[in-house]
Specification:
There is one protein chain. With 67 residues, the chain is mainly alpha-helical. It has a domain of 35 residues. The protein has two helices and no strands. The longest helix has 11 residues. The chain is globular, with a radius of gyration of 15 Å. It starts with 23 loop residues before the first helix and ends in a 9-residue tail after the last helix.
Length: 67
């Protein structure tokens, strides 16, 4: 049995950190406000879930994830 020691987060606020790469945040906001569908297609591990979680928080929406 392996034991994992978790360190408490040093983050001072409750917001999810996301580093914008180009203009995906403004594009997503535009699509959201104009009720346009969005398809996010990038390789595994590129941050799709983190981006969507960030946008849900920014737009004050609940996020439900399904595996």
């Amino acid at each position: 049995m392996n034991t994992v020691n978790l360190k408490p987060s040093t983050k001072t606020d409750d917001s999810l950190y996301y580093q914008e790469q180009k203009n995906e945040v403004s594009l997503f906001e535009y699509a959201y406000h104009h009720q346009l569908p969005v398809l996010i297609k990038v390789p595994t591990g590129c941050g799709k879930t983190r981006f969507i979680a960030h946008m849900a928080e920014k737009l004050n929406k609940r996020l439900y994830t399904v595996s």
